[in-house]
Amino acid sequence: MPESVRGEGAVKAPSAAPPTRSIKPASWLRDTARRPGWLGDLSMLPALVVLIAVLSVLTEGVLTPSNIINVCSQSAVVAIAAIGATFVILTGGIDLSTGSVIGAGGVTAAWVITSTGSVLAGAAAGILAGTAIGLVVGTVAAKLPVVPFAVTLAALYVVSGATTLLSHGKTIAPVPAGFIEFSIDGPGGVPYSVWLAVVLYAVAQTVLTRTAWGRRVLHVGANVEVARISGVHVARTKASVYAVAGLFSAIAGIVLTSGLAGASASMGGPLLLNIVGAVVLGGTSLFGGRGSLLRTAVGVLFLGFVSNGMSLLGLASFDQQIITGAVIFIAASVDGIGRWSRRRS
Amino acid sequence: MSQGPVLELRGINKSFGAVQVLHDVAFSVYSGEVTALVGDNGAGKSTLVKCIGGIHPIDAGDYFFEGEKVHVSGPRDAADLGVEIVYQDLALCDNLDIVQNMFLGRERKSGLVLDEATMEEMAAKTLDGLSVRTVTSLRQYVASLSGGQRQTVAIAKAVLWNSKVVILDEPTAALGVAQTAQVLELVRRLADNGLAVVLISHNMNDVFAVSDRIAALYLGRMAAQVKTSEVTHSQVVELITAGRSGELGIKNGNGAAS
Predict the structure, then answer these.
(1) How far is B83 from B71, CA to CA, in rounded Å?
(2) Do A31 and B92 touch (CB under 8 A)?
């Protein structure tokens, strides 16, 4: 009886290992098509190049050094806040409180600067406040069964209201001239704020791609259940990205305070959609797990050049809004169609 | 086998709210053997496996590993013991590559940064060790792999850590004939390499083709644990559907196994 059922499948025989073609660790050069890396990260770059080319034809002075510096310095605040937003969106979350935290961080910094005279102390206080808010928001979003959209929407109102209350609805000023200079001038004629953004992008991209924490962020966004059963501390990772978002929002708020020569609770509000827009336009998936800071950088520059180009063309602000919307839609469609056709091939 | 079981559970009880899923379950797994865990849908196979893997805490009962009583309270505890589970849905992230998936949650670092070179090398060595020839690039996205290749990557992920017990939840359920044969061959090779393998399957042909022992769950009770060579297809089917077969199985519903 046993023999009749045993050995039915020939698999039982421990076959002598056949000569195997050993799997060589892939070098990315040989494997560009599949290698996830900076090539995929720059998928929006052609759209940016086309945009700049079109603007160069339509108007003059787009590609002059002074205009490029101008675009970069106008984009610095959004760029810095978008770093934090990228990490949040990579986990599949969303942080709607970014604009309020920009205000809270800036107001805190300005308040400490005006009362102590120390820019350093002010910056530290602002960063501390922003990170603390982010940590609280993140912990709530990660631990409670409430979607991040609702938690951060609530935080948007609470933080914005509290900041307005504490600043009595006023703009906190004046700040020292040297602090204002931060957004105007710097080495090579490029403002310090732009250099700061560049350094922060380099650091953040390295953290995302080269550290275990960065990998966790991708894991949680790619598949939260898989991450959980693989022993990743999902709640801790989620909470941490909101804290990081708070940190970068506060830095952005301090830079904005420097640019506006003062801080008010409501100054960051209008930036929220530009920040999230830059992240998504750059090609970071709202579903999480896919994206990078390089992509966000391209998205920020794209939005920066769109608004710069409209101004150079001398368009009225309502026309600007319509055209901005159209250009964003076209760019996103081209990118989407490109991805779709690549998948089909 | 002369030596004792590498993993042994005694008197495991597990309830979800008012529903008791496992009743006094005993389960033993031996090195160098494939133990098939069979049972009807809802018999408690997946729950038992999740208890072993630390996903579900057990309500009562003892968990012995290599003869010593241990306490497993999370996936990391199980992994630290050398117990790895390959889940039915494979627990792979589609938009990450093979290396990233194999080291998910347990990346190698050199200093502060990830050690990609070492991870790639270890992944390659593990796949080579399993005589896997179907994967061409370790930097392929998992989304681009076939069902059999995914299963292979999931199994390689489980054995990467010098694990001692590997539990496979229905590894052939979604595969075609050729790929099923490949995966079964791999399962057999794991045991021949000295690992204790637990194979959950609904397919009697698979069970009889590769297993050394069969453990049959019936309504949350361990109906019987027998050597594959000592039972027939129909006896196993009876154990699965009725909880008993002749002298084997549950007597008078008191949960005692023969």
Answers:
(1) 13
(2) no
